[in-house]
Amino acid sequence: MSNHMYIQTILKNHSGFTLIEIMVTMVVMSIGFLGLAGLQATALRSNSGASLQTVAVIYANDMAERIRANPSAVTNNQFLNVDSTATIDCAAFPPTICEEFYDEGGNVVTPATNCNVNDMAAFDINTWFCGGIRDGGNPNVRSPGLNPLDPNAILPMASATITCDDSDATSGTPDLDPCSPNSVHTITVNWRTRKEQGSDFDALDGAGNCINAGDASTDCHSVSLAIQP
Questions:
Q1: How far apart are CA 129 and CA 160, in angstroms?
Q2: Nearest CA to 90 among 41, 125, 136?
Q3: Where exactly are the structural domains of the chain?
């Protein structure tokens, strides 16, 4: 066999990839990479959602401990019908400052004021939702809380309620005590997330529920904790 025929035989047995084969391979790989990117984005959203739910649970438990620590205020119905959209004013200080705080505006430590049990309940509710006080001259300067008007809020577009399921309520009968001893208190923390960047949030009704719950652009979430103080 001549050298020329030998080389031809080698070339026939070792043919390379054609341009079409390479393009098909690139298309298949691109589809796979796109799928992986979508899976990663879904995983990131799930992790973010789980983190927000954990924060909501921590806040609900925090208020539960505040309620349990003040049974006299519970007896006085100070934790009855709390609604962040109606009864919590984050633009004002609590009526009485029951906790010492560092005043960033005056660069001093401001001592706590003597509080009764009702004052303590009002202080706890306000600072729990609106955030801790940091500037004695400006009620809008707070540690991050749940206030939806705070750009540093812990949860996006949050609201919260505390309700009482009266233990001795009777239908049609006036009740002198709307939250009798041993009644169950339910703490609910609501928040919303965008499914798509730039999409609008659903509106909420007075109870903190999504009005347009079927809107595909946003998700409404809530955590509820029932306790018997």
A1: 8
A2: 125
A3: 52-227
